[in-house]
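From the shared-data thread, chain only:
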Amino acid sequence: MFCSKCGVQLNEGSVFCSRCGARVGLVTEEVAADVSPKSRLAASLLAVFLGGLGSHRFYTDKIGTAVVMLLMGVASLVCQFGAMFISMATPYEDELPPLWFLFWGLSMVFGAAVGIWALIDFIIAVTGNFKDSQGKLIKKW
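Structure, as tokens:
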């Protein structure tokens, strides 16, 4: 049996959930079929700490969007290091070449996009509304 609110596994005959205190209904087997075996805590922590690399999406088997996030995160880092290298190679800091602005701008665009995406995924995961690749809600902490 599983709790219909938080998805935690319950003992047979339980009237209330031991984790969230919700009253256990008779439709617990239906809810169990819709709850992913993945951990909400793991998905949330991966989203907040390594979300810019798409690690939480790799964890939930959403490989396509995980690769997109990984590529955007790596592109942001590469552009940042490129801008840093160009600024170190420039003899006069007052005269940065246009290529530096291109690298810096691309780094900010990719970094902001993947950062906002990871933040939104983190909020969705914490609230228990994040789904795995099979469309099942990740409810279990």
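The CA atoms of residues 76 and 107 lie 4 Å apart.
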